[in-house]
Glucose-6-phosphate isomerase
Amino acid sequence: MALPLMDTLMARRAEKALRDDAYRSGRVHIADLFAQDARRFERLSLSACGLLADFSKQRIAAGTLEKLRTLAEARGLDDWIRCLFDGGEVNWTESRPAMHWRLRECKKNAPEVHEQLTLMEHIVNRVHSGQWRGCQGDAITDVVNIGVGGSDLGPLMASVALHEHHPETGGRPRLHFVSSMDGSQIAPLLDELNPGTTLVVISSKSFTTMDTLSNAATTRAWLERAFPEVNGALLRCHFIGVSACSERMTEWGIHQENQLRLWDWVGGRYSLWSCIGLPIALAIGMDQFREFLAGAHDMDQHFRSAPWDENVPVSLGLVDIWNLNFLNITARAVLPYDGRLKHLPAYVEQLEMESNGKSVTRSGEAVKHHTCPVIWGEVGPNAQHAFYQLLHQGTQPVACEFLVAARHGRRNGNSAALEPLEDQHGLTVANCLAQSRLLAFGEAALTPDQSLPPFMHYRGNQPSTTLMMDELSPRQLGALLALYEHKVFVQAVMWGINPFDQWGVEMGKRIAMEMIDVLNTGGGINELDGSSRALARYVRERQQN
Ligand SMILES: O=P(O)(O)OC[C@H]1O[C@H](O)[C@H](O)[C@@H](O)[C@@H]1O
């Protein structure tokens, strides 16, 4: 496939114009940018798919965004977007397309996807209606999802975020997530759970990941110990597998009818839309899961068709490029003002840093600029009492990303009718808006007090974007996550890197295998570097005593 070309001369000119802008307006205080333009918010905010994106508290002028779009044009972004949605080989180091968007297509366009969704629906309905039985004939009360990385973070994040959206009918099981390879999550869970009413989902695109397979083996041993007399029915009644490799699932013992499939063309960190999302569907039911897919599809359509000056993923990507490559702001904080989104920072960390933490371009050369910033985050109101001090008065610029829902939306349970709960949502939104204001304007946001001692001085000028949902519904969460996926792609195109591989992680897996052998047998210990040799000896001595 011929890769889209980029216009180098045009790119060089745009970069030069942007560097000039960075020198001039990029260093101007955000307060001055607002003072110069009464319509700044209108010029620098966009909405699509129920989301409002406010870029006006960034250190950017509307004219600079225009230049960034010229740079995107020079980088061939249009062709790359077409290539992504045509199923072109955008993942060139692994010679395959990246078609996560296909997982939210209609049945006519993606029949194989819907075939798997129907199988998943069947499982979800059987669990919800109490028809899925454990090997002793009891209905399922608990589901344990065993997975790591993309097979854990997305399902965990979305099922917690949407927990208040109950399935239409039937009861849902309690959901548990196990990822860490050391057994520290699975052990206390197994102490608590009833093996007869527990269903285990082994979620692994490759079905080779040692973290997941070790937790799965422990869980299998637990069930075998509980029901030594049961043979085939144990695996059939208690294990479901989700993977791109049917043979490995079968080899492990997953029954054919308990296997759900995904495809090589879905990256792990983009896979929550596939049957890897089974825990999400168990949490909210299939109708709501389809709404979640529909929200993502809305964003796909917007990304493909909206002109760039109205395009939210393109703008979000370009603003981040501005911060990193032109203003040299190398850190970004993801700050949801909603406890339901408590796992979103970890999800975004994987999506962005695993995708764009790269330093070699398509032509095999070292990149000449920074790629992905360092990203971290936490639930905003909690972080206000923890690391915000650095955002407020530290020495480093940090680009902040606030996420908030204007309305709380649906509540469930006995507490739902408590009036103070609505006030609590109001408090949270007020804090979100207050913090972005204070970060941008500094002490001038309040009545300036000239007599402040230096240690109380607060200069502001910390840039932020606010992403506001109407409410945290399955459809809006779907749109929000697809927005992140597409902005990652926009940035990868701008940097000329492949966002769909993770060779660094693969090398980490290889070296771990080697070290397991060293620690178990002592073989090869002398070939290690001085530090690793001493550490390995230290461990072996203590394990042998
Ligand atoms: O789903 P699996 O094949 O078990 O992979 C789980 C995770 O492992 C790897 O280390 C990758 O870096 C992740 O992108 C992936 O999501």
